[in-house]
Amino acid sequence: MATSMDGHVVVLPGDIVTDLLKSEKSPTFRLGPGLRQESERVIACKCGVLRRKDPNVYWIDNHQKRVSFKNFNGVFLSTVFFKFAAN
User: Fold this and answer.
1) Is there a contact between 81 and 66 (Cβ–Cβ < 8 Å)?
2) What domains can be seen in the chain, in order of their start residue?
3) CA 33, 25, 38 angle in degrees (round to 5)?
4) Tens digits of per-residue pLDDT, 4-18?
């Protein structure tokens, strides 16, 4: 379920956000990273803050990490990679 924090809408994977994207100006909109359309519903597939940019462009803003595991003589070591988006 989407939660509002300080004027921002925070969504989790699986949240249905169709009602949050409706606009009186135009019935069409573009989906960016983190959002997926299934038939008539729009579903969040990442957790983060739902963002909007005119005209009707929506995406989920989040910090994403990638983890890589290595096995050294039975000891697993992990490396975390950060992905930063440039605006």
Assistant:
1) yes
2) 3-62 (2.40.50.100)
3) 40
4) 666 688 888 888 888
